[in-house]
Specification:
- It contains 3 helices and no strands.
- The protein has one domain.
- It is about 70% helix and about 0% strand.
- Keywords: Coiled coil.
Length: about 110
């Protein structure tokens, strides 16, 4: 794929001045860091690819741990749901049994007077 000439010129201008590239990559304080070792376009791209690969590895690791903990949480919730459904059924059975007894109101008791 070929870049449009305006875009290619812009990229060339960015890569020819090491200060903004170094600041963007976080590898130094502008040109002072490059006086002993100039940053070439290949080195800048290599550094950017390494940084991106490290970020991808971090995000994938985070995804893996979140996925595992979320699946464990869902499993626990499903078990709790099943237990709650069984408890509800047990409650309805007990309530039906209690309802089958005839309700007897309080009897009047004649307490002896002193």
């Amino acid at each position: 794929m070929r870049l449009a000439s305006g875009r290619a010129t812009e990229i060339h201008a960015i890569l020819s001045d090491p200060c903004p590239v170094a600041d963007a990559l976080g590898i130094g304080s502008g040109g002072a860091a490059f006086e002993s070792q100039p940053l070439t376009a290949t080195a800048a791209l290599r550094h950017a690819v390494e940084h991106a690969a490290n970020e991808v590895a971090r995000v994938r690791s985070c995804h893996t741990t979140w996925k595992a903990s979320t699946e464990a949480r869902i499993y626990r919730l499903e078990n709790a749901k099943e237990e709650a459904e069984k408890a509800t059924q047990d409650y309805l059975v007990v309530e039906a049994k209690l309802g089958s007894f005839r309700h007897v109101g309080p009897r009047s008791i004649d307490w002896p007077t002193m």
